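Problem 12. The chain below contains 733 residues. Write out its predicted structure in token notation.
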Amino acid sequence: MTCVMCSRAVTSAVSKMPGVYSVHVNLVSETADVLYNPKMLSIDDIGDRINTIGYEYMGVHDNNSVNNDVIEKKHMEKQRQKIYRIVVGFFFSAVLMILMFGNIDLGPNASYILLTISILPFIYVSYPILKSGITSLMHKNLNMDVMYSLGIGVSFLVSLFSTFHLLGNNHFMLYDTSIMLGSFLMLGKYLEDRAKGKTSDSIRKLVQLKATDALVEKYVDEKLVQKKVPINEVLKGNLVVVKPGEKVPLDGEVIEGKSYVDESLVTGESRPVSKEVGSEVIGGSINKDGTFKFRVTNTVEKTVLSQIISMVQEAQNSSPPIQKLADRVVTYFIPTILLIAVFAFIVWYVVLGQEFLFSLSIFISVVVVACPCALGLAIPTALTMGVGLAAKYGILIKDGETLEVSDKINHVLLDKTGTITVGQPVLGKVINYSGKDDDEILRLARSIEQYSQHPLSSALFNNESRDGYELYDVTNFENVSGKGVRGDIENVTYYIGNRKLLDDTGIGLSEVIVNDLEREELDLKTSVLLASDEVLAIISVEDSVKDNSVYAIGELHRMGIETSMLSGDNENTCEKIAQIVGIRDVLSEALPQEKLDYVKELQSNGKIVSFVGDGINDAPSLTKADVGIAMGTGTDIAIESGDIILVNGDLLNVVASIQISKKTMSRVKLNLFWAFFYNIVLIPVAAGILIPFNIMFRPEFSAFAMALSSVTVITLSLLLKNYKPEVFDGESV
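Solution.
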């Protein structure tokens, strides 16, 4: 595909097929995401439709590295064919120029000799362009190959007519120009495709992280054996052995052995992570030294790596709102250029009385130099690189609109637990007011909290599996959002939560209990109350501030971004933690609705708000915020609500995601400036505005300039690959 009109043609053709629900075509990756009904049509039917309108269906591009290798080989073969055409084209162009302008006497049949020399090279070099242009024209699709075909075809046909004296004489020889035009255009396509291929390196590297097989341990004839099994055949629950230096093939839980695992290419975590029994491992990470065995928890299509690849692909295939500007320009671009080219020809030939060949060269130059390709590539190439760069740091950006909005964020709201703090609170102490012993108090609390997803629940189980604890049967369990939980044990209703929960149930707090609560809170502990008809105990848990929280929040302030901390925790603890990390604005003891209202209030005051959280209670705020940033350590619903997902839950990546968005959008604007500047300047030059100063832009130069324009835009986007967010080392490329 050469320009936006090509992607529109594919979109239009495929979307009209019965059973197709949606189509999104990516000009940069030359792929299409199609949602269709397999009962009404097949992938091959869609491929045939694409072939019919003049494009080539290459196959299904998915997360299967083997399948993608086949497609990659086809691309490489096409690139080789382009090189052959370029070499042949420039060689015969040089030969023709020597014969035409080197004072070599070819006799009275010179024009026929030139035709004989040029016809086969012309067809060989220009065939892909002419074929695409003619096919597009037949399907009423006015793309750039139509323009190129017009320029090449006119120059060759004029030469052909002149050879046979159909123009009155044989002075209009442009055989060298027609072949050189084709050569430069083919060179442009080669360079453009090569550069576009580099923009997809991030996806390619992620796909290459996938293992192709796994060493599965199982019993065969009552003997324990280890056997290499293709990754697609490994089932959930299978036991897999990983040796030093090998890839971890799938997600799972370590059941034997220990080691250090390099997860940097998957999560962005730079340091090797210690793994032991009970630890989770991620498919695609690299085992460093020890040997360990793990139980598979996610099959190949459901691994974290597969989800990352899918998210990055979807984001790269999306379009930010600014794309609409470029699309509007491109819609009218080609017809406008044709009118300008015809107008320039008429002015030079009819009005100014210049020679036909001179005026025709002006026409061809205008047709060839105009390049909507640069406009069409300006945004998607930068978007592709930005999303890929973010993925390198474990930052998953859902779509182009998120990138554009993130550039404008001026207020960041942060949840406390799991965002500013580690989010793995440990059990502190039990202040017991009942006649039951502490073990019984904890058993009651654990029995009810076993159904909760809140981090405080994990603290009661020491952040371990809940299977090893002796628990009561619980009925009528209810999660009271933002307040706590309740449930019945042996016909007695128990409540675990904050003061608001007990206020709602009418259970009062004595002065002693209030004093104990405040003492724990001032000691940076989060306390929950266990009660039935009266308060039975205070259970306190401790959570520490993340190592990078102070630095990350300081960086946000240095960027001119305001911060607020929102939490359902008590006021004393929240104020203390906010003071530690440097946040002045705090909303404590906040219910989910109050957090949501706070987001709305800021937005009504003109703020572009980002909400950072990881808990289930954050989902409404994550969704409502202009940009919801979900910590990868959070629950599924919170992750689904996020516009940006931080795989490793590092608060530094909140800053990095904003910095990457700003860098990407600045590159988009630079690309658009260059694309507009190129066309605004060179189209008048090609039309002959500088001829009074003895400067003429020949068609060959126009073709070369056209090639450079697209390559320049792509190269500017590729430079994003070298960018490192300032939050990591204070340096920018």
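Discussion. The first strand starts at residue 20 and ends at 26. Students who got a different answer should revisit the alignment rule from Section 12.3.
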